[in-house]
Every structure is written in C-alpha cells, then in structure tokens.
Amino acid sequence: xxxxxxxxxxxxxxxxxxxxxxxxxxxxxxxxxxxxxxxxxxxxxxxxxxxxxxxxxxxxxxxxxxxxxxxxxxxxxxxxxxxxxxxxxxxxxxxxxxxxxxxxxxxxxxxxxxxxxxxxxxxxxxxxxxxxxxxxxxxxxxxxxxxxxxxxxxxxxxxxxxxxxxxxxxxxxxxxxxxxxxxxxxxxxxxxxxxxxxxxxxxxxxxxxxxxxxxxxxxxxxxxxxxxxxxxxxxxxxxxxxxxx
Amino acid sequence: xxxxxxxxxxxxxxxxxxxxxxxxxxxxxxxxxxxxxxxxxxxxxxxxxxxxxxxxxxxxxxxxxxxxxxxxxxxxxxxxxxxxxxxxxxxxxxxxxxxxxxxxxxxxxxxxxxxxxxxxxxxxxxxxxxxxxxxxxxxxxxxxxxxxxxxxxxxxxxxxxxxxxxxxxxxxxxxxxxxxxxxxxxxxxxxxxxxxxxxxxxxxxxxxxxxxxxxxxxxxxxxxxxxxxxxxxxxxxxxxxxxxx
Lengths: 245, 245
Fold this sequence. Notes:
The structure is a homodimer. Chain A is built from 11 helices and 10 strands. By secondary structure, chain A is of the alpha/beta class. Chain A folds into 2 domains: 4-90, CATH 3.30.1330.30; 102-242, SPOUT methyltransferase, trefoil knot domain (Alpha/beta knot, 3-Layer(aba) Sandwich). In chain A, the strands form 2 sheets. In chain A, strands 7-6-5-9-8-10 form a 6-stranded parallel β-sheet. Chain A has a 4-stranded mixed β-sheet with strand order 1-4-2-3. Chain A starts with a helix and ends with a helix. The interface between A and B is large, with 36 and 36 residues. Chains A, B: GO terms for molecular function: RNA binding; RNA methyltransferase activity.
C-alpha cells in the first residue's frame, strides 16, 4: 500500500522545482523500471503491483519494494497508463563530459517527449552523451523518461552554457539547417557534434557561429519540416553509416 | 460566436463513430487549417479568432468563416493548445491506389500520433500513398491530423485488407524486422512497398509472408527498438538516397 506521505512525494516529483529540491526523480512503466534496476542509478523505492513484484522477484532482490494496487499506482502516477511499476530514483551527480566521439547538442529543444525520443535514438546509435542548452526540456521530466523507453539509463544529458561548450570543443560541429548541404553527400568525420535546434527557432545565433558544417536532410515532397527527434535520428543514421561499413 | 449546435458537432467529431456517420472530420491548428484551405479537400466551415481571420483574409476568401474567441475555440477543440483555428472538413471519397512507385504499408500501427508522424515524414520524402491494415489508427483522428503538420492534405491513407493488397501488388515488399539485412547495405529497387509493423507485435504473419526483403536499421547501442515513426523515416531516407543521387 502507498502511504499518504509516499503519495505526496510521488506527486511532488511531477514538478521540476520539487525534483530539484529533493534530488530525486520518477521512473514509471514496467520496461523503464526493469532497465533502471539493471543500471548504476541509485533507486530509493519501487512501488509496483504484486504481479510485477513476483514476476521479477530475482531482479528486484535487495531493492526497497512496496506492493500496491494498479488503482493506487495510477492515482500516484503522472501518466495515464502503463503504471504497473513506479520508482523513486536519486538524480545522479554527473560531470559535464569532455567533447569526444560522436555527441548530440540540443539548442532550445523544450518538448520533453522530443527529448526522450532523442535519448532513445541516441542510445540506438551508441551515443553516450547529449549536451543541451539550459532552456531545453528537463531530462528528469516524467514525460522525458517515459519516451526514452529505458534508454535514460545509458545516455547522459548535461544542461550547459551551450555556446561556451561548443567554443571550447575541438570537434567539428554539424549543425542542422534547412539550407545546409545534403547529409547524403556530406563526409562526416569519425568524431563530431550534431547540433539540433528547436522546430520553431532552429539553431540560434549564439550557437550557430560555432557550426563548422551546415547539413540538411534532402526533401522530395511538400512537408516544410521534420520533427526534431525524427531529424536527429535520420542524420545520426547518415553519420554512423559512413564509419561502420 | 460558436452556436450550441455547432459546438455539438465539433465535439461529436472527436469520436470515430460520429466522424464516420457524418462523413466529416476536424482540422485543428493554424498551420493545419492554412494547409487545408490550399488543398483540394472540401472545407465546410472554419471557426477562428478574428486575428487569424483578418491576417489570412485573402486566403480565406470564399470560405464559410465563423469568428470565435480563443476561449470558445479551446472549449470546442479536442486539443489543449494551438486552437486559433478549427475547420470542419468533408471526408474525401478515395479509391484505393494501385501499387506503384514508393509506398508505405502499415500493419497494426494503432497510435494516432505515430500515424500522423509517419504521414509527415512520408510527405517529406515525396510518398503519396499509405496503405494500412484496418486495425491501424484512424487517419481522421484529430491527433493524427495534428501530428501531420499539414501533410494530411498531400498524403492519402487507405485502410484495406493488407494481406490481399500485398498479394495483388507486383512490387517488392521491404519488411522491417529486427533480424533483417542492414538498410545501409540493402539495394532498394526504384519502386517498392515499405512494410512496417507495430512496436509491440511487429509485422504479423498474415502480411509477413508477402515480404520479399527483410530489412533492419543497424544498431550500435543498448536500445532494443526504435519508435515506428522514427524507423519509417530512417528506412525511407535509405531508400531515397539510392535513387536520387
């Protein structure tokens, strides 16, 4: 059963301010919680249905697990469905990673669902680090975590002063611009930063001045733009294709 | 002002059953309504703020426009935001297209947001027709239309008996399977059908037996799968790259 105090904490963690004050965040959904328990993150508590707890008994050994009904869990959750398991997790203390290998940099990508989808596709292509401007979506927003489908445990997101980070890096910066060169014809270096802007504002001036190569996805139809997560995935596929075959 | 009867119709069109009975659907949001008025679709009425109506006066000439407050529009809308304009549109009578050129076939893709994102990326790559199994999301669901970002006006979606359609087509069928050959190494023919399954069930047996080539997106990290819309976009990019350079 979820106590009144526990319910209060779970609800509070739906808010960014409370997540920051408590140094905690929520991981919701079966797939995400299973990825969590296999990761290095510090899990404080897991609330789950008795079915989930008994099915994954061995994996959950040593964790502080609280048995709750699906009804209780749905009331505590910030999501409408997929609430058989909810975990409270410590926000990790991470150093900002050195610019190395293939990285993604995000400028003003404020939708948590898009950020989560970008984390998932980054993980697919083996990218370990995402650098994001401080006005990007919160990587610990429950909607972000859900959209990652477990990849939150393998990809770090650091909110930084993006222009300073790009200035200090010695890597080529591939910026996505509608007027860039086709990614089908671009020769990507083995290491580099893929810089994506928001759908409404693109890459802003303060960051765009560090772009070494402007790239675009060639269009053959009428759509004016692609969703930023979709565009990130398509460009990553082109970058990886050149260095793995 | 939106009358009680008009409000009733707008609200009814949030439901699939009512859309079917009335032969009408909703187009919501400024960008989508502007794409609509430039298309061949038959628009019955446009409800919009006076700002929207005066800003686009020339484009809207000849349309039945009703001035409404943003408050009224938000109450009538199925969406939480982006409600400056809402249109009621006649569902077009479409013939199922002949299998020709590059097409997309969807097997059990039931999320309307995913379907809308697939329509948008199809439009980007110049695909005109999508064939979908009858248990796919409704192409006229307001969430589908919103996610297309205007591309609903340029891409047709036909719900059909998918296995029969594939059986009758003379095109190669490229099916997305985790165990397929890498799309980086696949030689795509200039015409063909890209067949995508749902994230949970993949391409089902009844359709998979018509697949001529199993393809996959090579993975370099820990993510187990990609979102179906993302995967569609990445494979389309690989198909188009070979036939346009």
